[in-house]
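Handout, page 2. Input:
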Amino acid sequence: MPTYSTPGVYIEEIPVFPPSVAPVATAIPAFIGYTEKALGKQGEDLTDTAVRITSLLEYEAYYGKPPVQDLAINVNKRTTTGGALLGVAVTWVNKPSVPAQFLHYSMQLYFANGGGPCYIYSVGAYGNAAKKDFTDAITALEAVDEPTLLVFPDAVKLNDADHGSVVDGALASCNKTQDRFTIADVRNAVAGGTDDNTKVTTNFRSKVTSNTVDFVKYGAAYFPYINTNVPFRTADANVTLTTFNTVKVADDGSETVTAVPNAAGKKLNDGTLDVKGKETAVYSAIQAFIGQAYVTVPPSGAMAGVYAKVDRTRGVWKAPANVGLAMVVGPAVSVTNDLQDGLNIDATTGKSVNAIRAFFGKGTLVWGGRTLAGNDNEWRYVNVRRFANFVEESVEKAIGAFVFEPNDANTWVKVRTMIENFLINQWRDGALMGAKPEQAFQVAVGLGKTMSAQDILDGYMIVEVHLAIVRPAEFIVLRFMQKMPEA
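Output:
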């Protein structure tokens, strides 16, 4: 009790409640990749720097837009013999699908699918990819506390072996920090590429050499690429008119084809042609046509958005699966039950790969919720691993207040009560199984329970937390039987 010298009335406020556990954020991805620029508000270089953003507009202000895509088209302007325009037919020489750079398009899908605050780590300007750029970035991000997801769609530009090394590096980093999770892509998962389970094993599973549960439980992989309705970035200077013909249609239906003079091989913005100024109908038809050139990209950006949306609307304990993807037309490879059988459960390597599938009347859905530790009973599911991360980090940050406090029963009661109060809220939200709190979790701390007398002499306060985390209903079995009629 304080010592008072002057007579009077004094107020003493005595704390009776233990400190609380503040839930940490669960879906703050760190995106690693190449950007058009990397300049801050004052013109400072943001390359190799983790920068927190909250919108696509902010991303473009700092990092620019995707590269302009080169396009080549054939144009036939159909007219009557008198010159009246009948229509314009535009066709591709080679229709583009997979862009040279992925990060900007992945950011569009991230925000469209529910993403919020995130970090961008630009490893340089658009160009060739290098494994070291990604592995160095992953290591550097270990010093940034807030990110909980690692996403690197541009890493698919590497070869299979180097891509596998980047995934290995991310899993090792997650194991080290124990507060983040890796969202990986199966590289080149398009028709004619890595498009079946055997190729997934050869080109992805075998290249990710991390095989112990301690590492692979910290990541999930998604297959295949996704066809989007996000258009390529284009510019008139990058559109080549491979052919530009005038097709005159006579009254009897016969056609006469005449090449527009000196138009073949010219760019759409060529001043000598002045298509925009002199051929306004043709120009409008071309713009409408090339605006339907949509990108096909790895799914990790969209999946990061799904993680964020599910965490926000349901909770980190809910599996990020059976969720529709926005701005997605369909998967780049049609996934059947037979194909997914091998992707979901792999008896050889144990590395599960989650499928993205199209369902009639439902759209394109995420149809898998397993970590890369797909054969492990404890850490098989993404939501289980991520909920454990969430609880561990939240409790770790809160319990720091008790470092150097007396290692006695008074402190133990406060610690236990603090953690129990936090876990009761999680149980009420539906994250833990059990009809009663004691069935959902147990928290133990104390001499003879979790510590010996020697532990206390050595300065250790050991707290044990047991959790009954909910598992997703991955397989729902309906059993029907006929019943004998009764009188």
